């Protein structure tokens, strides 16, 4: 699938990815509700854990993860600012994107926390197993994990595509057809290598939540909450006496602080997790 040459060629895979996302989130929510109401339900404890410093860093870590989560709409969000008719279409796409994000992530988060309390794992599916015993029917757990695996494979193509484009600018020939031997061979080699490297790193460093937090702090918070405010003030030059100027400035300043502290918190959490994780560890 990684050999598909452009974002446009991924449109059907994106549709399948959307359906799978809705499916596994629905399954995860239903599974959490099933476990929470079953006789095998684990004891629920909603009290806050850890000391003051760890709790504070945990808060900023969570903010960075949330920023990454809602940064999924960054592409249609950027395109929704350009000239009509694309602007209208991308704005509708952005609304659909956030509707999916709200409905899926909130349903999983709320049901998972209700069922497992402060023992909820970074991937709530990990809570569906106690030792080697599944708390839901095995076929249901297998189905949910298959949905998740295929969806992650599909959405990974979107995130790898910008890297692939940068690489191919160095090795492809724009004067040749994209499906010519001259362009297919380098694409096959370098895209296969990029998938292999990404997969190896993902398996080697099982810090999914921590890496999401790091991406949020360094990438999503600046792109979503800092640069747009600065660009607006620089481009449109609103009067310093207006609310919009100071509102944009305040958002940019607060977001900068959140980004810096979030970066420190995510790196700190990686260091803590490195004490218990090992390379290529089975996090289950």
From TrEMBL:
It is found in: Membrane. Keywords: Amino-acid transport, Membrane, Transmembrane, Transmembrane helix, Transport. Residues 2-271 form the Amino acid transporter transmembrane domain. This is Amino acid transporter transmembrane domain-containing protein. One of its GO terms (cellular component) is membrane. InterPro entries: AA_transpt_TM. The chain crosses the membrane at residues 12-36, 56-75, 95-116, 136-160, 188-205, 211-231, 243-265. GO terms for biological process: amino acid transport.
């Amino acid at each position: 699938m990684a050999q598909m040459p452009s974002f446009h060629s991924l449109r059907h895979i994106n549709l399948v990815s959307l359906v799978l996302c809705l499916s596994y989130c629905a399954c995860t929510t239903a599974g959490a509700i099933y476990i929470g109401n079953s006789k095998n339900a684990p004891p629920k404890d909603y009290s806050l854990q850890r000391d003051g410093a760890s709790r504070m860093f945990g808060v900023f870590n969570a903010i960075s993860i949330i920023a990454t989560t809602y940064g999924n709409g960054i592409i249609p969000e950027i395109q929704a600012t350009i000239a009509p008719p694309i602007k209208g279409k991308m704005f509708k796409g952005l609304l659909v994107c956030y509707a999916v994000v709200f409905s899926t992530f909130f349903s999983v988060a709320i049901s998972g926390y209700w069922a497992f309390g402060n023992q909820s794992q970074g991937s709530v599916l990990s809570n569906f197993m106690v030792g080697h015993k599944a708390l839901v029917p095995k076929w249901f757990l297998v189905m949910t994990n298959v949905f998740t695996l295929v969806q992650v494979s599909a959405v990974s193509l979107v995130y790898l595509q910008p890297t692939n484009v940068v690489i191919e600018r160095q090795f492809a020939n724009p004067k040749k057809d994209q499906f010519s031997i001259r362009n297919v061979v380098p694409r096959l080699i370098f895209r296969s290598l990029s998938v292999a490297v990404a997969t190896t790193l993902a398996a080697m460093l099982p810090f999914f939540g921590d890496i999401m937090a790091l991406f949020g702090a360094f990438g999503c918070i600046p792109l979503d909450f800092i640069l747009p405010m600065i660009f607006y003030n620089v481009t449109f030059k609103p009067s310093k006496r207006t609310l919009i100027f100071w509102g944009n400035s305040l958002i940019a300043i607060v977001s900068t602080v959140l980004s810096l502290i979030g970066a420190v918190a995510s790196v700190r959490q990686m260091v803590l997790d490195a004490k218990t994780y090992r390379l290529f560890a089975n996090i289950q």
